[in-house]
Structure formats: C-alpha cells, structure tokens
Amino acid sequence: MGTGRLGVLGLIALAMLALLGCGAAANLAPPASGATTQLILPTFPPATASPAGANIGPTESAMSQGQGALPPELIGTWMQENWGGSTRTGYFTRKVYGFFADGSYALISLLCLTGGSCEDADPREVGIATVQGNQLSLSPQTQSIEGPRSYIFAIVRDPNMGDLRLQFQMADYVDEFFWQP
User: Fold this and answer.
1) Is pLDDT of 46 > 90?
2) In a 10 Å sphere around its CB, with 0-12 CB exposed, 13-18 middle and 19+ buried, how is residue 84 labelled?
3) Does the pLDDT value for residue 35 go beyond 90?
4) Which of the residue ranges 3-17, 92-106, 132-146 would you say has the lowest mean pLDDT?
5) Which CA distances in Å does 140 have to 12, 58, 93, 118, 146?
6) What distances in angstroms separate CA 158 from CA 61, 64, 74, 92, 98, one per listed residue?
7) Is 82 within 8 Å of 164 (Cβ atoms)?
8) Is 181 exposed, middle or buried (0-12, 13-18, 19+ CB in 10 A)?
9) Which terminal Cβ of the chain has fewer Cβ within 10 Å, N or C?
C-alpha cells in the first residue's frame, strides 16, 4: 500500500511537525475543555489486563463512529520526548504519532541533538489504525521496527496541567504522548 492513504505531502507535513516540535493543522484541535466527552483516567500502576467492564478508553458514543473511523479524541498529532540519560548528554529522542479520520496513522521516530538538529532514528511508519473498545491496534503498511501491535489506551486530561495525553498501558508502566495543538 505504501504511503497511498497518507500521501507523500502528508508524510512531509508530519515530519515538519516533528522537527518543529509542535503545531498541527487548524482542524486537528483537541476537544474543548467544556466538551461533553468524559475523559477517564486509567488506574496506576497499570494492570497487565483490564479489569472486566473497565472503560479507560474513549466513551462509547465516540466509539460508534462506524467502521474505519477513529474516535475523534484520537485524531491529531501526539508527541513524546525522552532525554538520553540526562539533559547533559546532549541528545533526546522524539516520537510522533499522527492519527487521521480515515483510520490511517503515521509514526516518526527522531534522534535529536539539543542544538536542534534531528534525524530519523527508525524508518518512518505508515499504516492502518483500528479501535475496539479501549484497544488500539496498529497495522504497519510500510517498513516497521515495532511491527503489528495493540495497546490498551486512554486519552486523559492531566488534572494539574490541563493538557491532553494519550496513554498506552504497558506491562509495568504507562507510555505517554502529549497532544500537539
């Protein structure tokens, strides 16, 4: 399938967002703080399996958007930065997911120097994302270091900072990405 769903221009745009560290198209805004969508926090530390009946993902109304569509809360650009050991080592990694209304996604992983230059750390990945309840499945359609995978996920609003975060529940921690308006 290549980059057919996202397109070359879409990949370039996502790469520019990753390199700049923020920014997105005007129509990729997070839900307004007064929106009726309820964001539910997962329990910490995460369990290896969700308790029966637990709802830690988007609300049921968001999930009934039809096949191929992703929940509106997930659509947009999410970024994570990790410093290599400490801020004095001079480098950090930046991982950016872009989720699109047609069910496609893109992943860019960069290795960056604190001076601002970045280069690809892994091959850029484009694929199909599907959501069933609180399970996000990613099926790469291009070369992928991580391969097909699924995550228990939640989109939460940080109670102290007020920003939106995409959380993947891992075996012994929560992997967190920040909304990029």
Assistant:
1) no
2) middle
3) no
4) 3-17
5) 18, 23, 21, 23, 9
6) 22, 25, 16, 23, 20
7) no
8) middle
9) N
pLDDT at site 117: 85
Nearest to 104 by CA among 79, 123, 129, 124: 129
For 150, the token pair is 């699924």
- Provide CB contacts within 8 A for 171, sequence distance 6+: 46, 48
**SS3 category, 150:** strand
Side-chain half-sphere exposure of 5, counting CA atoms within 13 A: 19
Calculate ∠ Cα 34-37-40, nearest 5°. 110
Q: Which amino acid, 75?
A: I
DSSP single-letter state for residue 165:
E
The answer to whether 50 touches 62, Cβ cutoff 8 Å, is no
Give 172: exposed, middle or buried? Use CB within 10 Å, 0-12, 13-18, 19+. exposed
